[in-house]
Each structure stands twice: as C-alpha cells, then as structure tokens.
Amino acid sequence: EHEHKYLIVETLRQYGYTCAMTGDGVNDAPALKRSDVGIAVHGATDAARAAADMVLTDPGLSVVVDAMLIARGVFQRMLSFLIYRISATLQLVCFFFLGVFMLPTQDYGITDPDFQFFHLPVLMFMLITLLNDGTLMAIGYDNVRPSDRPQRWNLRVVFVVASVLSFVALVSSLLLLYLALDSNEYYHIGETNFFERLNLPRVKQGQIVTMIYLKVSISDFLTLFSARTGADFFWSYRPSMILFVGAVMSLTISTIVASAWPAGKMDDIESLGLSRSDDINGQLMPLWVWLYCLFWWFVQDFVKVGACKVMDRFDIFGYRSLAEANGPIRVAPRRHSEAHLRNTEARLRSQSRLQASQGRLKSSDNNVQEPLLKNGH
Fold it and tell me: Are 141 and 239 contacting, i.e. CB atoms less than 8 angstroms apart?
C-alpha cells in the first residue's frame, strides 16, 4: 500500500540513509515528497509530478543513471579543483615561511645585503599565479572517472589529501633550496659539493632564484595532475586535450623564462637564467631541475595513493562509511518501549493518509476545472 512506501522512506531517512523514490500515482505523492530525491516516471499524474524533485519525460530509468554519472563527474571536477587549490596554497605559503627561518642565505657565504633571506621578485610570483590559474580553468573540461560510491563533501578528507600533496612538494622545494645554497659559488670554496659530484658547476646567486622559480612552477603543475585522479595514480586515466595543452604551454613558458632570464636586479634581487653559463653542463641545469621534479612527482603520487588506502582501510574521517551509507547510521535507541514504537507508526500512518488525501483533492480539483474551462465558465 501507499502508506507502506511512506513508512519505508521515513525509516530509511531516520537511519541516516539518502533515499530516492520512484512513483507515478496519487498514492505515491507522500513518499515522493518525503524522500530526498523523488522521481516521477513517464506518464505520472499531476500530483506525483508536483511532489517529485525530478520528472522523467521518456519511458525507462536509464536517464536517471545518466544524470547520476554526469553529476558525479561535475562533483569530481570540483573536488580536483579544491584539492589542488589548497595544496598549491599550502606549498607556497609554507615554503617561503620556512625558507626564511630555516635557510638564511647569509649562513651560506652570501653577503649581498638585499639577499639575506630567500625571496622571489614580484614578477616571478605573478607569472606563477597567472600561468597556474590559466591552466586551472581548463579543469572544467577535464576527463573524469565517476566514483562508484555516492559523492558527499568530506572536507576533512579533502584537507588531508591536499596536505599530503603539499607536504611532499614542500619537502622537495626546501631540499633543492638547501642543495643550491650549499653549492653556490661563495660557500665551501675548495671543497666538493653536491652539484660538483654530479658534474654540475657551482650555481651563482642569481641562478638560485631562477632555479627555485622553475622548481615551484613545475611542482605546481604536476601536483594538478596528481590531484585530478583522487585516490588513483596520475596515470590511471588521461587528462582532456585542453588541460594537457594548457599545462604543456605553461610549463614551456616557465622553463624558457627560468632558462633565459637576463642578468640583472629586479626588486633588488639578483637574477640570472639557469642556461646562462659557459659550461655545457651548466647550460643543462634546467634539465636537471626537470628530472628532480619528475622524481618527486612520483614520490608525491605514491604517498597520496598510500594515504588514501590507509584512510579507506581504517575508515579514517569516515572515508568509506560516509560514502557507502551516506553518513553514520543512527540506530534507534533501545530504551523506547513497544508502545512508543506503535504510537510512532500510527503517527506516520496518519501523516501518510493526510498527505494522500491532499493529493487526491488537488487532482480532483484539476479534473473539475478542466471541463468548466472547456464550457467557457
């Protein structure tokens, strides 16, 4: 009976489930109205259509599946955008904050009074922001893989995944800054440093700036490709052509800028292109930065997938249960007596009958008004 449908929907909702309901008749209106997603099928009555959230205009339920897949794809794109934006912001803010206090340049033989701590010219910051945002806009056209589970916002999981991505990128940036400062032309003269062990020349003060600019730019773009696949590896499915082309263009511009930056000062910061060297190995410095970033990209992606598997295995922050049951199941307290449960059932039945009668009255009013309109009254 129709009141059984209403009771089933109400019970599922009280247990914390997100409930959908299909129907076509007047008697289905109360259950359609009470459900989270009421679906009036093709040929449904006016009362069912008015009570439903979704009205199907064609026979069959395949359009519901299509709507679910499209909605989950849109949700996945928004999730990728949010994870990347949080990750990129944390990486930049924490890197420059920690770099100032942990790696003062004066401790590595640099005596320039305008470069006693590491910082970038404003123009380089603007280039990072513009190129990243330009590529990020293309994520709205990205290829996505709809989730097998229902999608709900779990901001704690989003923040954890973004923090993991930003932490790995932060560690790699701080490590490269340390290696560059330790291998600069003023420090440990006469001793073999890390770069010289790789047959690379000592870096000049201005090249430290362009090296970190290139590293941060590459890490930001590669983080985007890790963020877009969620709990899967970045090679799980290919990006859309517009996103791929946008990223390639932005990375090419960043590499050219870092390699060919002219010698001089900007914002009182000495800068020099990485390829501006008389040594052939020094001219290949951008290639070494690229290899360094690619290595850490794989590390970043493996750590991300590992963190997601741990959260899924132990259901941390409701990673699994929030999707499977759409929230923690709220079991009815056992202290309620049988009389109380019978009263609750009777109240739900009366509500169901009342809503059904209202639906019949509305339907009958429509049927009465139609012949009156035809007769010109």
Answer: no
